[in-house]
Amino acid sequence: MTTRKRVDPDHARLDRIVAEARQAREEREQTYRGQALKLFPWICGRCAREFDHTNVHELTVHHKDHNHDHNPPDGSNWELLCLYCHDNEHQRQLDTRPLTGAASSAPGATHTPFADLAALLKRED
Q1: Is residue 8 part of a domain?
Q2: What is the arithmetic mean of pLDDT over 23-29?
Q3: How many CB atoms lie within 10 A of CB 28?
């Protein structure tokens, strides 16, 4: 039995990669988020909850086509949603996407419970 030597990950490198990814995301979000907050009233497009400066951080920008890189300056691909409605919107999208893998290749139901209904109704007792 050979023992493998444990190699510790380069934490400084991982921290740097995570920090860069977060910064890029924040810069991208600030660009379209700032624009959206200037274009639209601070009201959730689903539940109509109103926001002000004390809670605007709970108002998110939802991309209607789910493409975060599609940010037309007129805001036609955006809608403001509260955190809860935004999560719900993305969950709905996940719930409606087609299944992939082994589960989707399983045959459907083959039983037809009403196949002989006409014959049963014609039968005289």
Answers
A1: no
A2: 78
A3: 13
